[in-house]
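Here is one chain, start to finish.
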Amino acid sequence: MPGKFCVNLTHSKDDTDRATVGFVLANAAQASGKETLVFLSIEGVRLANKGGAESIHEDGFPPLRELMDNFAKAGGMIYVCSPCFKKRKLDENNLVAGASIVGGAKLVEFLSDGSPCVSF
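Its structure:
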């Protein structure tokens, strides 16, 4: 199944259910053969730093750290909103596997061919 899929994730510990479900869906898209991108913005950028997802575990789902690791191991991409990341004074040298700090133009480039995008 060719194509792309994007998950815009704006939450971390401020709404652990949304953060978890976003990565559940991203894993499903990656497993179905889609080139999958998770775009972390607003509070979601906190997940880009190692340890940011450690205490997040919603009932009925694997721990978020495991979901994120599986996504990266499967080749999923994690783009991190540069202005959001800098605003929160997070550590660029402490990124999780698969994460890259980018500007908005990289997201626009990924979406420009009509890729669907869902937001959590």
